[in-house]
Amino acid sequence: MKPERAWATIDLDVIANNLELLRQRLPDKKFLAVVKADAYGHGSIPVSKRLEQENIDFLGVGTCREALDLRESGITTRILVLGALVEPELDRLIDQEISVTIHSPGRIEVLGKTALTMGRELGVHLLVDTGMSRLGVSPAQAVAHARNIAHCEGLRFEGIGTHLPTPSDSSEVFRQREILHEIVKDLENLRIRPLLVHIDASEAALRYPDPDAEMVRIGGALYGFFNHLPGGAGLEAALSLHSQIVYLRDHPADHPVGYNATYTTTRKSRLATVPIGYHDGFPSTLSNRGQVIIRGQRVPVVGRVTMDYTVIDVTDVPGTVVGDEVTLIGSDRNERIEAEEISRWCGILPYEVTCLLGRRINRHHVATISRELELEGR
Questions:
Q1: Residue 319 phi, psi dihedral angles, 5° rounding
Q2: Among 174, 285, 168, 291, which Cα is nearest to 226's?
Q3: Which residues are catalytic?
Q4: Is there a contact between 216 and 32 (Cβ–Cβ < 8 Å)?
Q5: Residue 310: strand pairing partners
């Protein structure tokens, strides 16, 4: 039996290759790699360290704490806090040379005064709300706020951006881009020019990249999502998820399984218990719906997925024994289950599948491609 109940393997070489492919597809762009939410469950510190080796332009995080964690791990790459700011941590952000996003004008004066008091200059990006209706200043007020930033001592007007809520809708994407680019033109007429304009995230950048924006924010594409799009061809999933069988038992036909007996065997069945459940990030919505792979064959989840365990039907997989590895995301022989497939079963976003992976999932970061090249003597 393997020493772990459940584990994820994250291939850092795959992430690096995905970045290189994106650079080839978008050769004139700077890249902000989104590593918020623990790099979408992939492990923000090891992922960021590898991206730093690949000379990424920016790392994007959601919170002040995430940014400080990266600095405390020794990462020196430029970092941008994309989300709302927590005032007690502003001093530390400025001290660690972490750029911030302004979503409301009230922050401008506070940030400038704090930076001046510390004898520092703080990089600032202005977020304009062109349609997400979540965070950001209104387009009508954006030029005024950008002028305030540009003329505020202690602040460096580093960038301006917006967030696309429906990147698959080309007409909406182009409408939002036009709004932001008109604001940039108005600023240029005032001789104010932020260093970076960024609008597109992964999906829009792969579908119809904006020729007039200097930087793209890549998250999902970096980890291998969106490989079904023409622009995403060649992207590979960096994460696989595994567990093992800890219990096997034969049951007769018409035997109830799990809480509330939501499944009843239709034949004599061999059922296996796998020590992974919804606390680990294997959603309960996979009950009687999901599939896993064992010995290169897909088998169904039967009964309710519980907090700690999931039951699978291995009747059609001869030779199954306790200790056999179970693949929940990834490949085994000729079969493969991707996060996107799980998301369809559950009715959630593909990002949620990896973000949900819990603390009990041990994460192993490997570099398989470079290791293979080393073994081949290249």
A1: 85, 0
A2: 168
A3: 36, 259
A4: yes
A5: 274
To the nearest whole number, what is the mean pLDDT of the chain?
A: 94
Distance CA 364, CA 42 (A): 9
Beta-carbon count within 10 A of 103 CB:
20
Q: How far apart are CA 146 and CA 229, in angstroms?
A: 35
Q: Which amino acid is at 365?
A: H
Domains of the chain: residue spans and CATH? 12-232 (3.20.20.10), 239-369 (2.40.37.10)
DSSP 324: -
pLDDT in tens, 3-62: 899 999 999 999 999 999 999 999 999 999 999 999 999 999 999 999 999 999 999 999
DSSP state of 286: G
Q: Which two tokens stand for residue 168?
A: 């698959």
User: pTM to 2 decimals?
Assistant: 0.93
pLDDT (tens digit per residue) in 127-173: 999 998 898 899 999 999 999 999 999 999 999 999 999 999 999 99
Phi, psi of 173 (to 5 degrees): -60, -50
- Per-residue CA distances from 108 to 122, 148, 211 (Å): 11, 7, 30
Measuring CA to CA, how many Å separate 378 from each of 18, 146, 177, 369?
Answer: 21, 51, 45, 11
Assigned token pair, 357: 């992976």
- Spatial CA neighbour of 221 closest among 207, 206, 208, 239: 206
What type of residue sits at position 46? P
- Length reported for the chain: 378
Which structure tokens are listed for 217? 């924010």
132 half-sphere exposure, CB direction, 13 A CA radius:
16
| Cβ neighbours of 326 (radius 10 Å) | 25
One-letter identity of residue 182: E
Q: Kindly state the tokens that stand for 273.
A: 């218990």
9: Cβ–Cβ under 8 A, 6 or more apart, which residues?
239, 240, 242, 330, 363, 364, 366
**CA 378, CA 374: separation in Å to the nearest integer?**
6
CA dihedral 209, 210, 214, 220 (to 10 degrees): -40
For β-strands 325-332 and 291-294, DSSP reports them as: antiparallel
